[in-house]
Write a structure and sequence with these properties.
Elements: E1 2-5, H1 7-22, H2 30-50, E2 58-63, E3 67-69, E4 74-82, E5 88-94, E6 106-111, E7 116-123, E8 129-141, E9 147-162, H3 168-182, E10 196-202, H4 214-220, E11 224-229, E12 235-241, E13 249-250, E14 253-254, H5 255-272, E15 276-282, E16 286-293, H6 298-306, H7 318-328, E17 334-338, H8 343-353, H9 355-358, E18 362-368, H10 371-378, H11 384-409, E19 413-417, H12 419-435
Parallel strand pairs: 3-9, 12-15, 12-17, 17-18, 18-19
Antiparallel strand pairs: 1-9, 2-4, 4-7, 5-6, 5-8, 8-9, 10-11, 13-14, 15-16
Helix pairs in contact: 1-2, 3-5, 3-12, 5-6, 5-12, 7-8, 8-11, 10-11
């Protein structure tokens, strides 16, 4: 605990000093008067702080939602309960991180005798992550308002900021497509009618000729067709790269953020359609993992496992990550690797480890394409700088297409989409694989 002067004391000292300069004073040197005033101020500060309410008579509480979403507004509230027999004035400051963008984090509170006071503010987090709030600083002002005692009060709480789910509408659209698929109809993109047998029924004018069951037709004397539905209880595993290549920014946001949004959409669609979804996040080693399941809270569990991850500034170990996946998931599954199609990284790290997973699993590699690169290619050339920029952008785009072609040649489904389309195209790839029985 520390003893501090208040602003009121500073103003009082300035007023006394000004009066001594203006008014006639005895024949005493000015520095003697200054020392006397300073000593008097110190004594008053100590006495007034000693008369302040003891911290043990005050109880503090901080309340906030355990989880908030980045760029959305939530409330944080503090409660101060006093057992003192006289009113008390407090100056309270909380250690809210700047990225939480709190409307206020310092408060001047007056608590009546034996009463409870609540104050609140709003926060609009700028970035996701885990914020551990350990303490608040409390300054208890003395009865004269000239001195105060200050101490840090332990007040632990954890605030988790999850990434925003920007592609929620695309996920809901994909779920509707999948449910149409389960009814044996065709979606707008022409996806098939599933491969898991459901029932036999009489042939109708809209049925396909190839669906006729000739054995049942011969037995009943009427045309009978087989109906199918999309398979359930399949396994989808999102494999998230958190290495150096995911730190690059696209549309002002790191590639890792776009990948997390796409994984959230994929988990939403797959679990709502009856399949199991899991997560493996890796960099130089395995950083987070969620076992595949189709629990109602599975999307929340996956989000909880990846919300605090940040890009590492080193290369990811693809072979070790793929070996872990193969050992962990022996049955065929759809592995969705969220990474980048940067040619050197794919050439040196991804391709050597890819045969480990393509032998057993259906593999999808998804990357975020920067729309700015295409704008540089299509934009006018008005200067030498524009020409160099267009050349570099063209080379980058050609390299990405060549990398995607190499991966497709190994039997991998490749998605290279702009941030606004990544989640939708990933969901479409999942529905197509599901409808054609590739899972």
């Amino acid at each position: 605990m520390s003893i501090l002067p208040t602003r009121r004391l500073a103003f009082a000292v300035l007023a006394v000093g000004g009066a001594l300069i203006v008014l006639p004073t005895p024949d005493v040197s000015l520095w003697v008067i200054a020392v006397a005033v300073a000593v008097l101020a110190l004594v008053i500060t100590v006495i007034d702080a000693a008369l302040a309410v003891r911290p043990a008579m005050l109880t503090f509480e901080r309340r906030h939602p355990p989880i908030v979403v980045a760029n959305s507004t939530s409330a944080v509230a503090w409660t101060v309960a006093s057992e003192a027999r006289r009113p008390v004035r407090l100056l309270v400051a909380d250690e809210l991180a700047p990225s939480l963008r709190a409307a206020a984090r310092r408060f001047d509170i007056r608590v009546p005798a034996g009463d409870v006071v609540r104050v609140r503010t709003s926060i609009t987090p700028l970035r996701r992550g885990r914020f551990e709030l350990e303490r608040i600083s409390v300054r208890i002002v003395g009865p004269l308002g000239l001195g105060a005692r200050q101490r840090d009060v332990p007040l632990h709480s954890v605030l988790r900021v999850h990434p925003p789910f920007r592609s929620r509408d695309e996920a809901e659209l994909a779920i509707r497509k999948g449910r149409i698929l389960e009814l044996g109809l065709r979606s707008a993109r022409g996806i098939g009618a599933g491969t898991e047998f459901e029932q036999l029924r009489e042939y109708g004018p809209d049925d396909e000729f190839r669906r006729i069951d000739w054995t049942a037709t011969a037995r009943t004397g009427r045309a009978i067709v087989r109906t199918f539905r999309a398979e359930r209880n399949q396994t989808v595993v999102a494999v998230l790269d958190t290495g150096r290549v995911m730190a690059g920014r696209v549309d002002g946001v790191p590639r890792l953020e776009h990948a997390m949004d796409a994984i959230t959409a994929l988990a939403t669609v797959s679990t709502r359609l009856g399949d199991k979804c899991g997560l493996v996040a890796f960099g130089a080693d395995i950083r987070s993992e969620v076992a595949p399941a189709r629990r109602r809270d599975q999307v929340g569990r996956i989000t909880e496992a990846m919300y605090a991850l940040e890009s590492e500034l080193n290369e990811s170990d693809y072979p070790s990550a793929f070996a872990h996946v193969v050992a962990r998931y022996r049955r065929r599954a759809m592995l969705v690797l969220l990474s980048d199609l940067l040619e050197p990284a794919v050439e040196d790290s991804l391709l050597p480890g890819l045969p480990l997973i393509t032998r057993t699993h259906l593999v999808v590699v998804a990357g975020v394409r920067d729309p700015q690169v295409e704008e540089w290619i299509e934009g006018p050339v008005q200067s030498e700088e524009d020409a160099y920029r267009r050349t570099a952008a063209t080379t980058t785009l050609v390299d990405r297409r060549r990398t995607a072609a190499r991966l497709r040649g190994l039997g991998v489904t490749v998605i290279d989409a702009a941030p606004s389309r990544l989640a939708a195209e990933l969901a479409d790839a999942y529905l197509l694989a599901k409808s054609t029985g590739r899972l």
